[in-house]
Amino acid sequence: MAVATISLNNAQAGVNSDFQTWIPVNINVNFTEQLRGFLEFQPRLGDDTAHLASLMVRPAIGWAITPQITLWAGYLMSADAVNLASDRYGIENRAWQGLTWKDMTADKQFIWEARNRLEERFLSANSAPNIRWRTRLRFEYLIPNLTSWSVIVSEELFLNLNDNRNNPQLQAGLQQNRAYIGVGYRFSRVFQIESGYLEQHVWRRAGKADQNNSVWMTNLNINF
């Protein structure tokens, strides 16, 4: 399992590590029965949560082809510190397309979701975009008699699909893995908070040490 792989990688010599805090704010809007809107604003604190490592904005528009399946097209702008303690930031512009399949079991105790995204990443100093595929599986268990509370686990893999001649770190193959476990609480149909632990492992190339981040992530979800 990927979680076990992460733990083994973490034990390898030469792996850099950091503790980070991510705070995504996700706004979901149903404009019509089929037309969807999405906006994410996410700051990430790194260098042991002492410094702003990234700040990203991710809008998207979606079309529900069934009640469970939605197609997405979106954009991301991310300002990323050139290193974890730097006050200099590089800008990434990213176009992306996605498909989500979300459903609930008949007993209404489990919600599962498969999310797939294809990303075209336009990074500074790169003449051609980095093409990346990512797939996330997410499971949410609604606690009986405490249905406002839930337990959430997810697993997401990132795969670079092309080689970039200007950046040895952007070569085809596995790029990173994220494993998450947390709890959620629904205050109402409109507002939910989720908080938990995420372990992110980023594979490096060209003799550079891998990066392993221990992340406390708190999602604020707003649904209209």
Number of strands: 12
CATH class: Mainly Beta
Shape: globular
Counting DSSP H or I runs of 4 or more residues, the number of helices is 1
Describe it.
This protein has 224 residues and is mainly beta. The chain contains 1 helix and 12 strands; from the N terminus they run αββββββββββββ. A hairpin with a 4-residue loop joins β3 and β4. The chain is globular and about 50 Å long. Helices cover 4% and strands 65% of the residues.
Structure, briefly:
This protein is mainly beta and 224 residues long. 4% of the residues lie in helices and 65% in strands. It has a single domain (2-223), classed as Beta Barrel (Porin), CATH 2.40.160.40.
Strand and helix map with partners:
Elements: H1 2-10, E1 16-22, E2 25-30, E3 35-46, E4 51-64, E5 69-81, E6 89-104, E7 110-123, E8 130-142, E9 149-160, E10 173-186, E11 191-202, E12 211-223
Parallel strand pairs: 1-12, 2-12
Antiparallel strand pairs: 1-3, 2-3, 3-4, 4-5, 5-6, 6-7, 7-8, 8-9, 9-10, 10-11, 11-12
Q: Tags for this entry?
A:
1 helix, mainly beta, 224 residues, Porin
